[in-house]
Amino acid sequence: MTPRSSWNADVSWAEFDPIAYVDHNYRDMQAEDAEILCIVRDHFADHFRRYPATPVSGIDVGAGANLYPALAMLPWCEEITLLEYSSANVRYLESQVAAYDANWDQFWDVLREHEAYRALGMDPRERFRRAVEVKGGSILDLARYEGRWSVGTMFFVAESMTTSWQEFRLGVERFLRALTPGAPFAAAFMEHSKGLYAGERFFPACDVGESEVHASLEKLADDFKVVRPASSACVRDGYAGMLLACGRRRQ
Predict the structure, then answer these.
(1) Rounded-to-integer distance, Cα 41 and Cα 70, Å
(2) Beta strands in 19-150 (DSSP E)
(3) CATH level 2 (architecture), domain 8-249
(4) How many helices (H) and strands (E) does the chain have?
(5) Measured distance CA(158)–CA(171) in Å, rounded
C-alpha cells in the first residue's frame, strides 16, 4: 500500500493496536532486535563505565508497545519516562509497569549477558516497577524539556510518525535536545519504510536511509555511528532493513 502524504497530526494514533503489534514483532525475539539490543547494551555499559553518574534519569521517546529500550537503560536509571502519544499504547504501557509480560524476558536475557545487567541487584520487574513512569505526550512537544534527561532511546519513531522529511528531522532534533550535554543515546530507524499495519489500521512512514539518518543527527550528536544489523531477515514487508545510531548528545 502506498500511503498518501501524512503529517503526524493527520493520523488517528488512538487506533494503533498494541497487542497486534507486539504479537507480530515482539512475541518472539527477531534476530535484528537481538543484534540491536547487544549493540545498545554494550554502548550504554561502556559509557557509564567511563562516566559513572548517579542518579540517572532516562527517557524512551515514543515508547509504543516496545519495552526493550527501557530495559536497556534499567541498570543506571532511578527514573525512566516512557513518552507515548497514542492513547492505546499508553494503556498498554501502563498495563506493563507493575509486572511486564513474560515475552519481554527473552530481551532481558540478552541484556544480562553483560555483567552490568547481571549486577542489577534485584528482579528486573521490581526495578522496572520502581523506575518507570508512563507519560502521554508527543515527541514534537519536547522543546519545553530541553536538557531534562541524562540517557535516552528512540526506537522506530521519528520516521514512523509522518511522511514528512521536515517532521522527521524535527523529531530527531527534539529527541536529542531533550538530553543533557554528553548524555548517551540510542535511536533505531526503519530503513526505507513504506508504512505499517497495526491490526487493521495502516500507519504512515517517512522514507529515510543511512544518509538521511546521519544528516538528522550530525548537528547535535557527537561520537555517533549509524550501523545496519547484519541479519537480513525482515519482521514485516515494506522496509529495507533497520538502522541503529548510538552516540552522545553534543556538549
Answers:
(1) 11
(2) 56-61, 77-84, 132-136
(3) 3-Layer(aba) Sandwich (3.40)
(4) 9, 9
(5) 5
> Residue 250 CB: number of other CB atoms within 10 A?
17
pLDDT tens string 118-154: 999 899 999 999 999 999 999 999 999 999 999 999 9
Alpha carbon distance 95, 65 (integer Å): 11
Q: How far apart are the first and last CA of the chain?
A: 42
Find out whether 182 and 249 touch, Cβ atoms under 8 Å: yes
Q: Which three cell numbers stand for residue 222?
A: 557527537
Q: Which of these, 166, 170, 159, lies nearest to 195 by C-alpha position?
A: 159
CB 83 within 8 A of CB 63: yes
Locate 122 and state its grid cell: 534485584
Cα–Cα distance between 234 and 243 in angstroms, integer?
12
pTM of structure? 0.90
CB 58, CB 171: distance < 8 Å: no
Q: What percent of the chain has pLDDT over 70?
A: 84
* 3-state helix, strand and coil shares in percent for the chain, rounded to the nearest 5: 40, 20, 35
CA angle 209, 38, 199 (to 5 degrees): 60
Give the orientation angle of helix 18-25 with respect to helix 87-97, to 10 degrees.
Answer: 70
